[in-house]
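User: For documentation purposes, I need each entry recorded in a consistent format: the amino acid sequence on its own, followed directly by the corresponding structure tokens. There are two entries in this batch. Please keep commentary to a minimum and don't merge the entries.

Assistant: Recorded as requested. Entry 1:
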Amino acid sequence: MSIKSVCILGGTGFVGRHIVARLTDRGVAVRILTRHPERHRDLKVLPEVTLASGDPHDPATLEDFFAGADAVINLVGILNEQGRDGSGFRKAHTELTEKALAAATTAGVRRFVQMSALKADMPDPPSHYLRSKADAERAVFAASAFPVTVFRPSVIFGPEDSFLNRFAGLLRIAPFMPLARADARFAPVFVGDVADHFVNCLDDPSTFGKGFELCGPRSYTLRELVRYTARLTRRRRPIVPLPGWAGRLQATVFEFVPGKPLSRDNLASLSVDSVCTGETLPCPTLLEAVAPAYLGQEGHQARMQRLRTGTRQ
């Protein structure tokens, strides 16, 4: 690779760890900015990885962090905000992206790759989440100092994901599953396929200046995904699709539950199907080829072993 050093924002997260592993396998030096380096000692064992402490919203910190890097990958994203007016999404997605672009320009970075979300590029996104992602995309494509690429994945699955694992957790405690937007459709994409595209695009001129949708080979309704999760975890529960008014009520109540398992903004995002309709790149890994290993009995035993030994993957 002509790209020899990469700075990653959001590198300690679910997708970030897979990208970091692939970059270091190729001998690329990786720097990760985090507020709490002591919480991510497991990343330090990877060759060529440096954890830097700092506030990603501080422009001077970003300029120092990007200095000498060939490329920047921005993976920062949140599914919920503390408030309800969209300001949390704007800060995490739009404002941070704008600061990162400015700092990367000052630092002389040669490449910028952005994580967005499927349907963020539609004419009138229905949620604060998608609108903030759309504004971030516009800022990225307006940059002129370096070639950029944007990826828009559907829901991402894999070990330690926040989607199927969340439903697995709810199924453990719920006697039945009341489900808002049960017929919303998704094309789940494997985290390994997403990570491959982020890494492969860095030196690929055919991806410069473009946005790509990332979807798995099959689409499913939300009801089908929850039913499949229940079968794998051996916790078969009645699934009760909720009418619109009941779904809105559920989301309103759940906004006050720790962890916000569902919010009104999530519900708004679910009003558009998360399936690909634009320019895509191949993501061939089937959900059924991976999910049983971390949701099924084998995955349960592995999780219990990690808890007993105090290790994680």
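Entry 2:
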Amino acid sequence: MSRFGLPDGIQACLFDLDGVLTRTASVHRAAWRDVFDPLLVSAGQPPFTDEDYARFVDGKPRRDGVRDFLAARGITPAEGSPGDSPDADTVSGIASRKNVLLLKRLEEHGVQVFPGSVAYLRVVHGSGIPTAVVTSSANGAEVIRAAGIEHLIDQRVDGVVADREGLSGKPAPDTFLEAARRLGVEPAEAAVFEDARAGVAAGRAGGFGLVVGVDRGGQADALRESGADVVVDDLSQLLDSS
């Protein structure tokens, strides 16, 4: 490993947003719980758990998260269409409902960052290594702006970009591959930083030069099993290793 805990040859860094740079994973989890629990109660199912979030929802596009989690509980709502009302109990309506609740929580509580990880981002970007945020969130631009890190991000591939370009969400590698393309590097020349199992799996599937798992909730083994080369509690640890 060379500077910043990166192998020689790494020329770009691709960061997930929620849970890696910003403290919004807990806000996402709470919004999902508010959406899912009434549906689960009506189906006679136990409540949504943190493990459910990690296994079925974290890091995925909203509609995929709705579909995958409810299918695991034997619930199969109609797909609906992207324009469905947040009141509709379709996959699209439930996904929209979650976003309404998320935006309300973000408005009430704001966006906090992980200081150590933002310090790492600042050092990497300041050294001339290009950076990108790769997030399944359709609110990526707003969260980045609210977090005050716009000037440290060279490219952004979020849920809006993925929908527009027809990119499959994590665990498919498409969004990371698009970010690498926009930065002008090959996957083997880029490092991926992820806290979600689906995101780590995407980094591994894309053939990236380094996949760093960020363990925010006691899932270090699961991140390694998903394909992480290195697991840290915070990106500041990589500065300590330089």
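Summary note for entry 2:
The chain is about 45% helix and 10% strand.
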